[in-house]
């Protein structure tokens, strides 16, 4: 199967070195115990050839892969259906092939310097030093957003891509824009000047000493969180009336929106998951402009405390809102003008907007 080719390297030599470095990064950087390390490292297809070098330091592609594994692990803790699917796949001897992950951002004019860079630029600053480049833009006109795809320069076929979407508040009402400005005006940047220095070093040399890589990894993973205050109950419902995507961002921020397993037979996967009674999308999205098919579980609900400011006596209530989810993708092959075959790594705007509906309810 195609995804098994990604880590066909022998377990000796460089492959062993890379696994040792990966374990050290995750254990010392994130405090993972041996059980978690064994489960994740043995249950995921690793990009091949994944660079490792004991002499020069830890290569950017290895740091990127460690970050992706950490994001998967954290997402599975929040998404029960995804965790159950992955656990069953591992128990059956299968491995997850991380195709891409997604997150949502907002482009808006900030009036202070403490917040994040605007829109997808907040993640461009960490993805580019990790060896990613902007590989495509996908207008999402129905939801007044755009998707920016970042792909690895080192391992484009097998290192997980990022689909970073960006919402445009100026295309909504003035009241909507005012609420967005109020909420995002409370943002704080999770990266320090020391973190920026390590990213600059990684960008220039493509490697970091292990000690520095261990310091940087948790800060990279930590970027995928909410760094603004929760909205009031009234503001949340106002945002939701005009944009369910902005309502999601208001409660979840830049949390990892979903992770995606690249599979060979998406119809078979869908049938099995539906038979198990899991809340999966009612139909498979089939791309019009790429050989790509996608489906997903519905978002797992999460509880967020919100204050009602319109009541005579302000009160705080826990509101259940959509959280993150788990996706599946099947990629076909394309043939260039010279007859060479390659995996179709593109996305499709229509597909993406269909997948966005997983967080609408």
Give the number of DSSP strands: 14
CATH class: Alpha Beta
Q: End-to-end span in angstroms?
A: 35 Å
Taking strands numbered 1, 2, ... along the chain, how are they ordered across the largest sheet? 3-4-5-2-7-12-9-8
Q: How would you state the average pLDDT, rounded?
A: 92
Number of helices: 12
Low-confidence stretches: 1-12
Shape, principal axes of CA atoms? globular
Count of all domains: 1
- Secondary-structure element order, N to C: HHEHHEHEEEHHEHHHEHEEEEEEEH
Query: What class, by secondary structure content?
Result: alpha+beta
Main sheet specs: 8 strands, mixed
CATH architecture: Roll
Strand content: 15-25%
Considering DSSP H and I runs of 4 or more, what fraction of the residues is helical? 25-40%
Give the radius of gyration: 20 Å
CATH topology: 2,3-Dihydroxybiphenyl 1,2-Dioxygenase, domain 1
Question: Mind explaining what this structure looks like?
Answer:
- By secondary structure, the chain is α+β, with helices and mostly antiparallel strands.
- The chain has one domain (2-359): 2,3-Dihydroxybiphenyl 1,2-Dioxygenase, domain 1 (Roll).
- Helices cover 39% and strands 22% of the residues.
- The chain has helices spanning 14-30, 34-43, 60-78, 80-91, 121-127, 174-184, 193-205, 210-222, 233-242, 244-252, 266-275, 349-356; strands at residues 58-59, 98-106, 132-140, 145-152, 161-167, 207-208, 258-262, 285-286, 292-296, 301-308, 315-322, 325-331, 333-335, 341-343.
- The strands form 4 sheets. Strands 3-4-5-2-7-12-9-8 form an 8-stranded mixed β-sheet, with helices on both faces. The protein has a two-stranded antiparallel sheet with strand order 1-6.
- β4 (145-152) and β5 form a beta hairpin.
- α3 runs parallel beside α8 and α9 (233-242) packs antiparallel against α10 (244-252).
- The chain is globular, with a radius of gyration of 20 Å.
- The two termini are 35 Å apart.
- Mean pLDDT is 92; it is low at 1-12.
- InterPro entries: HGLS.
- Its cofactor is Fe(2+).
- Belongs to the 2-oxoadipate dioxygenase/decarboxylase family.
- It is an enzyme of class 1 (oxidoreductase).
- This is 2-oxoadipate dioxygenase/decarboxylase.
